[in-house]
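ingest -> validate -> predict -> emit
validate: passed (alphabet ok, no gaps, 319 aa)
predict: started
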Amino acid sequence: MEKETLYRFFRGEASPEEERRLMEWLDADAENRRTFDRERALFTALQLFAPRPKARARVSASRPGRRSGVLRRLAAPALRIAAVVALAVGVSWGVISHRERNWEQLTNRIVVPAGQRINLTLQDGTSVWLNSGSELEYPALFAGATRQVKLRGTALFDVTGNAERPFIVETYACRVEVLGTRFNVRADEQNDEFSTALFRGSVRVTSRDSLHQQVTLRPNERVLLEEGRLRVEPADDPNEYLWTEGQISIGGCSFEEILARFESCYGVRFDVRLEQLPKVGSIGKIRISDGIEHALSILQRNGDFRYTYDTQTNVITIY
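emit:
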């Protein structure tokens, strides 16, 4: 199989005839499937190391109270982040061999290491931003009646429209179904936190534990799962979704909430030995790439505490 055809397929540009020939080629020999896996991993690595496009002028977020600020802020194109692949930074690629000649069983899995974020394009043209510590499983080819992916963590999706083949995000807590839209999903099973914020189009969110619980979001709304129930509220704070730009917003958060965000972002664990948690003032935004110790130094300016950091165990003791 010509590499040009493989790369057109990875970019979602292959013709139906080329896709048919590719399927026959994969079914013909196990070595062909191994070649496909290697080229797919190389293609994704090249995407991650692609030159950054020139940044366009960013829309000001100085009026966070207005709902339209979210749409304008998130519609601005984000810069790709060059990430080191495989063992160098721990990006894990796993390809599950297709069973019973079912193409949707040929699955890619990507895990984002702590402190990193990754942007990738799925076979149908859908763009996905994955946040630190997140994991996405997706088929090499959307061959069925739906386009289904599995998410653990946080991701922002910009879905290519296809009314005949809905796009579905499966998480530990809820199922999110869309046709063509832009939305953010947070599915943190460890801390039992789930939310979906919609910026464009329409999504339907269904609880996995209670199928009769179902809500349809409008733009600039978000739904949260709290004590087993879905609750809809305005999504009018653009700072909450700055992670695609490499920033974390902790304005208005309690000390405990800030530590939880640091744990998720930097892959560390906190051992808090304070009798009383300090109150912190308005901090705003922190650049993720500056690292956890820089983030803690900023937090120390706003709260009275000390810490020790065991880099072997990734445990930070607060006292």
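The longest strand covers residues 147-158.
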